[in-house]
Amino acid sequence: GHDAAPNKRRPSMATKPAAPKALSLHLGLNTVSAAAYEGWEGPLAACEFDANDMAAIARSKGMKPTVLLTKKATRAALLAGMRSAAKALKAGDFFFLTFSGHGGQVPDTNRDERDGKDETWCLYDGQLIDDELYFELSRFASGVRVLVLSDSCHSGSVTRERTPPPPPPGQRAKLMPEAVGRRVYDAHKAMYDQLQADVAKAAKAAKAVVDPDAALAQVAVIGPALQAATLVGAFRPAVLLISGCQDNQTSMDGENNGAFTEKLLKVWNHGRFNGNYISFHARIRAALPASQSPNLFTLGPAAAFVQQAPFTV
């Protein structure tokens, strides 16, 4: 006789790959701690709105967002959020990081910046130095896509010779004033110098490139489409960073959103936007005044990433 049971097909090995995992982290600071900034609180109006609006986009695309507003947006909270995401995500996954607040600067002690300054994000209890940010980004696994949107100013660039004109009524520049930056650094020099020394040491051990400017110098910008080439062997994840303005400009805060975030939301149009990251950046840029042109650059193998529709998990 035949087998009583028809031979059951073993489930094929080619089971459907798991859907990509996506995490996001959104920081918005309407003030900073006077204790950490020598009495300066840097009041802004719309940064918390920016963070919540970015988290809403993340949620709409199926990500799990973490939102850190003002007092919660500390150095430790940001670093912990990035590190746990870097541990949790693997090839094919997505990490979305947004910051809205003041940009600042500290003198560059590891001599990696041509202008002698390191750019910073002004977090509630102290600044995060750009070297630290890039090092944390370098810790993501190969094949992870990382999108960073920064609605703040890069300050301290050599190209800023003239003081920018005063902002229009109802707008504030998202830039820690230079005099405040100097006082803060003088008061906390040991801490900021040590942070730079620590990250340089960690990067060397990990053979990671942390210096954003050296990295950028190696990134070839090909044609108007800004398709940036791969930084070989240094960045495993594909990182796309869009910031609110060029180095020699200021990002503006508004009443309901920062200028960059406001235009981004308008172009995105609740997900009706049709295009990739390159056209997304171009459209946002076209919507902003000439005094604020968002910057786009990539690190790592990001050529395919920039061709995707924004916020695609």
N- to C-terminal distance? 53 Å
> Major sheet: size, sense and barrel closure?
6 strands, mixed
Number of helices: 8
State the secondary-structure class.
Answer: alpha/beta
Task: Tell me, rounded to a whole number, the average pLDDT.
Answer: 84
| Strand proportion | 15-25%
- N to C succession of SSEs: EHEHEEEEHEEHHHEEEEHHE
Strand order, largest beta sheet = 2-1-3-7-11-13
- Note poorly predicted spans: 155-161, 217-233
Number of strands: 13
**Rg from alpha-carbon coordinates:** 21 Å
* Percent helix range: 25-40%
Large-scale geometry? globular
Explain this structure:
The chain is of the alpha/beta class. Helices cover 30% and strands 20% of the residues. The strands form four sheets. Strands 2-1-3-7-11-13 form a six-stranded mixed beta sheet, sandwiched between helices. A three-stranded antiparallel beta sheet has the order 4-5-6. Strands 8-12 form a two-stranded antiparallel ribbon. A hairpin with a 4-residue loop joins strand 9 and strand 10. The protein starts with 21 loop residues before the first strand and ends in a 14-residue tail after the last strand.
